[in-house]
Each structure stands twice: as C-alpha cells, then as structure tokens.
Input
Amino acid sequence: MSPVVGPNTRLLILGSLPGEVSLKARQYYAHPRNAFWPLVSGLIRRDLVPLPYPERLEALKESGVGLWDVVASAWRPGSLDGAIRDAEAADLHRLIDGLPRLQAVAFNGGTAARIGRRSLERPAGPVLIDLPSSSPAYTLSFAEKARRWAVLRPWLEGGAAS
Output
C-alpha cells in the first residue's frame, strides 16, 4: 500500500506489513481488533474509529502523522510478522527525504523496529521510537499500549520535541 503522508508530516508511524484483513480491505489497520486507530485517536484527541477510512487518513495528515510500512513486499502465510519470508525493505530514505518537517519515526512493533532501524539509523536522521505493536497478537493490555504510545504526544502537539 502507498504511504500516507502530507507536507506537514512531523511523525511517521511505520508498521511491518499489512495483514490479510488490511490487504483485502486496502486499508491500513483494518482488522477490527487492531488497536491502532483507538491508540492514535487518544494521541491526537480526535475519535477516528467511527470515521470513514478516507477521513481517518485526512485527520492523520492534518495532525502531522504519516503511515507506511518497512516491508515493501514479502511472502507470508497468514498475518503474523513471524511468518514474513523473503522481505524486501521499503525505500524509507526516499520517503523521509521528501518530508522536510519530519522529526520522528515510530515503529509499530518489534518487527517494524528491527527492519526499520537497520535502514534508518544515522546521526542526522529523525528520532527513532520503538512502540509495542497495536496488533491483537501482542497481548499487552490496551491501557499499557496507550501509556507507551503516549511518548509520541510531543510530536503531535504542533512542534518539535526537545
């Protein structure tokens, strides 16, 4: 799927690879038990869950949030990250180089962090942040996920984190 970014993207959230439900729907985080949309709703202080998908994406962009994945293509039976084989990394540098206001990149889950950090760690790059996965397969409670995702708030409140 294509990146969801705008000229004011300050925070880029990178997943690993969309699961079967998301690929079929052609929507990021389409699985109804994935906590992504409720987590981000809390961060931007706007309930995205009831909105039609295109409006969710627009609300993200208005809030300075972008979405994409660290894997461009792979073979994977099912939706679990542990089953990803023959992964081809997404061209993250090309995307990031086109986002002049980008300050931070957050990885949604361990697989995204492992692959993304390999590609992006450089001294002058954006701040890199590892998050617990929003996937229902990652059994951390929603409250704990929300607490850990709150680290993103400074990049969503209109400016740079110091």
